[in-house]
Amino acid sequence: VLEFIKGLSLIAILLLIITQNRTVNFFILGQQHFLDLRSSFSVPPYSQIKLIRLFKGAIYDVCFDLRKSYPIYSQYYSHLLTEENRTILYVPEAFAHGFITTESNFEIVYCMSSKYKPSHEETIIWNDPTINIDWLIEPKLISKKDKDGKFLANL
């Protein structure tokens, strides 16, 4: 536990302390060019704040705003997370999140503010033309859930 805490920034530790229903999920994946939008976003009352930290490998991480009344609606933000840069990505509620691996054998830690509820999850199709994400590389593996995602315009 101590080694895990050393790897987190102060904001991550504070988020874990202040959230009542905190949960930590570990995802250890090892497939090159794997696209993951499966946990793209959770709808109320199970919306989630997420902190994402990569401990091994590299991923191209993308999140975008789903709040229609905001000027940045559907605009995406991207960042390369690597074990060298030690970046912790904060994804607020009402933002969708996805990533593609740029190296095989990677380890990611998700800290979420509420428990995962599959019944309150929505998936946006990975190549939605409204969002128009540049994924940098062509995905080699796309899950059925990602292929069957909805277009943003249909949510």
Note the main attributes of this structure.
155 residues, mainly beta, five-stranded mixed β-sheet, four-stranded antiparallel β-sheet, 12% helix, globular, disordered N terminus
Topology of this protein?
Layout: H1 2-6, H2 10-18, E1 23-29, E2 34-36, E3 41-42, E4 50-56, E5 58-65, E6 76-82, E7 88-91, E8 95-101, E9 106-112, E10 121-122, E11 141-142, H3 144-147
Parallel strand pairs: 2-11
Antiparallel strand pairs: 1-9, 2-8, 3-10, 4-7, 4-9, 5-6, 5-8
Summarize the structure.
The protein contains 3 helices and 11 strands.
Give a verbal description of the structure.
The protein has 155 residues and is mainly β. It is globular and about 35 Å long. The termini are far apart. Helix content is 12%, strand content 36%. The strands form three sheets. Strands 6-5-8-2-11 form a five-stranded mixed β-sheet. The chain has a four-stranded antiparallel β-sheet with strand order 1-9-4-7, with no helix packed on it. Strands 3-10 form a two-stranded antiparallel sheet.
Please provide the ordered H/E string of secondary-structure elements.
HHEEEEEEEEEEEH
Major beta sheet, strand line-up: 6-5-8-2-11
Query: Helical content, roughly?
Result: 10-25%
Average pLDDT, rounded to a whole number, is 78
End-to-end separation in angstroms reads 40 Å
Fraction in beta strands: 35-45%
